[in-house]
Amino acid sequence: MPDASSLTVFILAALALLIVPGPAVLYILARSVDQGRRAGLVSVVGVGLGSMVHVAAAALGLSALLVQSATAFRTVKYLGAAYLIYLGVRRLLGKGDSIVQADGSNRTLRRIFFQGVWVNILNPKTALFFFAFLPQFVEVDAGSVGLQILFLGTLLVVMGVVTDGAYALAAGSLGEWLKKRSRIVTAQRWFAGGVFISLGLATALSGGKD
Length: 210
Prior knowledge:
This protein is mainly alpha-helical.
């Protein structure tokens, strides 16, 4: 485990990175505005679980394979981009799922949760971020490098869940206000769909490994 000074620097650096909205935060904002606080918070947990997959991969050294393989990088990147665009098109067509269902089940929330998981798992930039950021705070002489990366990555994900949750609550409150004004509902749907599609296109067109 890193010493106290290294851990403090890590926490400060992580906070600085987390407060700046990235693709995952924009995804959560769109969900929250579109479908309310519950959907936003469920997305936060899903995105957090997806991040833990990348943390585990980094700890096991699998991220190195992704960084070195242009084919793997492009495949994961385009799968993630296609999935985001798919979600956006569904929203624009008015086929987004309602949180409240006739049978009172939570199937929609489960679906939103797994969408959040896959959106983050299929983002190779997340893998690259963990691969580049976490080792900066690892001390080789302090014990197992893999366990240190796992600890730091888990801490970063927990911090991310807290900050992303704050974004979701704020955006969800705005969404509830908007839903009381029927003339804005259509624009709200287009906002959410537009964000998803824009994120997908940005992922697909972003510079990556050649």
